[in-house]
Amino acid sequence: MDSADIKLLKEGYLLAALSHQEFEEVLTHAGVFTLMQNECLFDQGDPATHFFFVLSGTVKLCRIAPSGEEKVMDLVRPGHYFAEAVMFMGGRYPVYARVLEPTRLVELDNKHFLGLLRSNADLCMRLMSTMSQRIHGLVNEIDNLTLQSGAQRVIGYLLQQLPEGTAPPSVRLTVPKHVIASRLGIQPETLSRVLAKLRGKHLIDVHDDQIVFNDVDALRCLS
Amino acid sequence: MDSADIKLLKEGYLLAALSHQEFEEVLTHAGVFTLMQNECLFDQGDPATHFFFVLSGTVKLCRIAPSGEEKVMDLVRPGHYFAEAVMFMGGRYPVYARVLEPTRLVELDNKHFLGLLRSNADLCMRLMSTMSQRIHGLVNEIDNLTLQSGAQRVIGYLLQQLPEGTAPPSVRLTVPKHVIASRLGIQPETLSRVLAKLRGKHLIDVHDDQIVFNDVDALRCLS
DNA sequence: GGCGCGCATTGATTTAAGTCAACCGGGTCC
DNA sequence: GGACCCGGTTGACTTAAATCAATGCGCGCC
């Protein structure tokens, strides 16, 4: 773990609650490692012993239906945690985790971290805050899935990816399109058609994984 | 608040972490009141100042789409909390709350409770545990919405309502059917048709809000 | 180069669920 | 009693999205 990594981890919202000494202690209980493209971190149902922080790369969290098809529940990017809530459900990961590209991760030991939580109210507050945000995100997700059309979800997703103040406004899709489709709860074909339609209306231009927005406001009011 | 109420509240998982003295103090900051059928507790977007515990009755938590249609996010029954995660999102309720029948509630003051959390690690642990369960529930919900058919969701819901070891196995729908439909993300007509179909296959019998299961195992393997 | 493979796109078709409309039975109110 | 409303059911029809199938394209590999 180089100094940039440590900086990223330390500045992540959660651990900012720790004193220098506590942070050092966390490091002694933390593992750092790299997974290669498509490697699996844990399977749905595996005993949950750690939670994770992404240093670089992308992690895909999925559910699999009995029928075999999979639904991407979340895509985790550098600077974010995942599976930290599982720590309290005592048991098993409710999703499986796989990386989409070479990905470097920090793993934090649940047992040790629970001990730390007992002695640090600030840390508790921060963890509760992140969990609460996650809940809010999931509620929004359900809202989207039940009250919005596929096209609206696509537009919402694109706008969400849009960084602040770029001109011309554009996004780069960093994950394969079929993964985005699953993330949005639609089929790849449907995603393709939605993008084609938006292109037809000259609201966006698509060049491979690069999407240029011609009229952000118009898109906003469609979502 | 009579002694049965106090017992229910005290035995609810969350507050069991409190000493007798702490519990008494919580009571001094807690309000108890009754809402009549269809009364609104808070609106989506209202500033969140309290969270709640249901003593009796049923609370409906909803989102409203721009189009005006609503999606029931959750139905909260006696012995359970709601809106406790909102406490950390600083701000506003992400759903609106309305009661389906005369309902008695305990309201707990966010500010005071946050203070209590700072001084009581056990309480933190319990709250994190309930939040984590909520997350798990929401993940399952998304799974259901994206990977299962409407019929499967109906069956799953019915089985979930089924109490342990009743013979003959049956459930009583305590909320109007159109509310259940919205809860499941389908239209009332669809719910009606699914039930009719199950009835046609002699898997269940329906008499108004009473549903008798003729073959629980067959239903289980359909869900 | 030629071959195969995976991903994306496009078209044709199917299907699950939504929409629209009619009807029924139970409750309430005049 | 009759008029009304509300919730649920059922039927006819529409529609959004899934499915199936064909094609194209980039890429690695022998």
What's the helix and strand layout?
Two copies of one chain form a homodimer.
Chain A: H1 3-11, H2 20-28, E1 30-35, E2 40-42, E3 50-56, E4 59-64, E5 70-76, E6 81-82, E7 96-99, E8 103-109, H3 110-119, H4 121-147, H5 150-161, E9 170-172, H6 177-184, H7 188-200, E10 204-207, E11 210-213, H8 216-222
Antiparallel strand pairs in A: 1-8, 2-7, 3-6, 3-8, 4-5, 4-7, 9-11, 10-11
Helix pairs in contact in A: 3-4, 5-8, 6-7
Chain B binds a DNA duplex (30 and 30 nucleotides) through helix 7.
Description:
2 copies of one chain form a homodimer. By secondary structure, chain A is α+β, with helices and mostly antiparallel strands. Helix content of chain A is 43%, strand content 24%. Chain A has 8 helices and 11 strands. The first copy, chain A, has a 4-stranded antiparallel sheet. In chain A, strands 2-7-4-5 form a 4-stranded antiparallel sheet. In chain A, strands 9-11-10 form a 3-stranded antiparallel sheet. In chain A, helix 6 (177-184) packs across helix 7 (188-200). The relative contact order of chain A is 0.13. At the A-B interface, helix 3 and helix 4 of A face helix 3 and helix 4 of B. Chain B binds a DNA duplex (30 and 30 nucleotides) through residues 149-151, 176-178, 186-193, 195-196.
Give the distance, in angstroms, between the N- and C-terminal Cα atoms of chain A: 41 Å
For the largest interface, the chains and their residue counts are: A-B, 40 and 40 residues
Across the major sheet of chain A, the strand order is 1-8-3-6
As residue ranges, the low-confidence spans of chain A are: none
Bulk shape of chain A: globular
Average pLDDT for all residues of chain A: 94
Number of helices of chain A: 8
Task: Decide which structural class fits the backbone of chain A.
Answer: alpha+beta
Strand content of chain A: 15-25%
State Rg of chain A.
19 Å
